[in-house]
Amino acid sequence: MMLAHTWEIRERNFDYYFFDENCAYRLLALIDVARPGTDLLGEVGTHAIPSDTVRWVVDKGLVDSVYYRPSAATNVSHRIDALPDDHQTLAAAIANGYVDADAPEVQALNDEPRARVLDATYDYVRYQSEAEGWPREHAAPLSHDLLRERSKIRGVAIKDSPPEPAIRDDQGHDTFRASVSGGRMGDRNFSELTLRPAYHDILDPPAGYRGGAQLQFLRLDARLYTDNNEVQIEQLTGVEIRSLSPRNQFFSPLSWQVGFGGRRTDTETNRVFTPYLEGGAGGSWQLAPGTQAFAMATADLEIDDDLGRGYDAAPGADLGILHQNNQFSLLGGVKTKAWIVSSQHRQDQAYLEGNWHLERDFSLFGKFSREDHYDRYRSTWQLGLHAYF
What contacts 181, CB < 8 A, 6 or more positions away? Predict the structure, then answer.
């Protein structure tokens, strides 16, 4: 039935909307036709996210069994990570042409560790040639040399597959999040309500999500200041994306971030709500399992009539450490920005944030920051609860 309906609509064009009527939405519509009464489209509210759509299909009892099939990158990373550090260095040297596949340091290894080094190096070279476009004149003869040397090792068959994750992508926390909190900024106490339709930030429970990744849509932070009962929108995030991908001797991914929306900013005499655009790029390095350090060069742009020239821009830097596990997540570091257009000054901040995960549906969170802005020091702290729906 699904294939028949797919054939029927093969020449139809549909409007595409990134948040809701996207590819995942159309797949749900196909399943509704094939299984009348499931009403999967009725689950779609403000957004249709692939992990949510899989969760809805599972909840409707439409999945009989699940098979884990690791990606090529996961397979390669697993084989490399299984090597001792000195063998990883040797594999990287072979892959980059600094050491021959039959070099004395390779031949000196016993059969099993030598087989593991050759297998991991071959998988890595093949992956890089296909995914990253390594030149054939380098990858092809090297692959041949690795296979030749591997064929000389008899009776050693290594079948080492990546372990299946304990939590699948569709079993992670729900993507809608509501938060209530209280705190103090300078000498003003406040209560805050945050609503985020989607999706995940780096301090949310990490199970089922990619480590170091953040993607948030349409997040609203509203505050009630208790000294004068004033309600303010603290921040409205349109989109915020962050990707922290650790670098090593085999892979050198770029860590980056981008976001836009509106937020409160200090003009020295007042805090005004201004549209902003921010971004950054840099690197990240793994310090221990679940822990990575990062360094980002950043850039900010704010636009508002209350700013001296109607806008302001700031290059800057963000240095920090992120730790994630299924019990708690921590983020700490220092930021600096040099505003260079409307009012030439620096804005420096030290920050520490943490979430304590209470199973899948709730997290306790706390934040503290100390900021030097317009030659004034100000501390802000906040404690609250996240609930995921």
Answer: 191, 192, 194, 365, 382, 383, 384, 385
Integer-rounded Cα radius of gyration of the chain: 25
pLDDT exceeds 90 at position 25:
no
Q: What is the homologous superfamily of the domain 171-388 according to CATH?
A: monomeric porin ompg (2.40.160.40)
Whether residue 159 has pLDDT greater than 80? no
The C-alpha atoms of residue 215 and residue 177 are separated, in whole angstroms, by: 13
Q: Annotate the chain with three-state secondary structure.
A: CHHHHHHHCCCCCCCCCCCCCCHHHHHHHHHHHHCCCCCHHHHCCCCCCHHHHHHHHHHCCCCCCCCCCCCHHHHHHHHHHCCCHHHHHHHHHHHCCCCCCCCHHHHCCCHHHHHHHHHHHHHHHHHHHHHCCCCHHHHHHHHHHHHHHHHCCCCCCCCCCCCCCCCCHHHCCCCCEEEEEEEEECCEEEEEEEEECEEECCCCCCCCCCCCEEEEEEEEEEEEECCCCEEEEEEEEEEEEEECCEECCCCCCCEEEEEEEEEEEECCCCEEEEEEEEEEEEEEEEEECCEEEEEEEEEEEEECCCCCCCEEEEEEEEEEEEEECCCEEEEEEEEEEEECCCCCEEEEEEEEEEEEEECCCEEEEEEEEEEEECCEEEEEEEEEEEEEC
* Cβ within 8 Å of residue 102, ≥6 positions away: 145, 149
Return the domain boundaries, the chain: 2-59, 86-151, 171-388
Cα–Cα distance, 316 to 19 (Å, whole number): 31
Beta bridge partners of 338: 346
Residue 236 φ/ψ region, left for φ over 0, alpha for ψ in the -120 to 50 degree band, beta for the rest: beta
Q: pLDDT tens-digit profile of 40-66?
A: 988 887 778 888 888 889 988 999 999
In angstroms, the first-to-last Cα distance of the chain is 33
Q: Look at the pTM and tell me if it is higher than 0.85.
A: yes
* Distance of alpha carbon 100 from alpha carbon 93, whole angstroms: 8
In contact, 221 and 234? CB cutoff 8 Å: yes
Q: pLDDT digits over 193-223, tens only?
A: 999 998 999 999 999 999 999 999 999 999 9
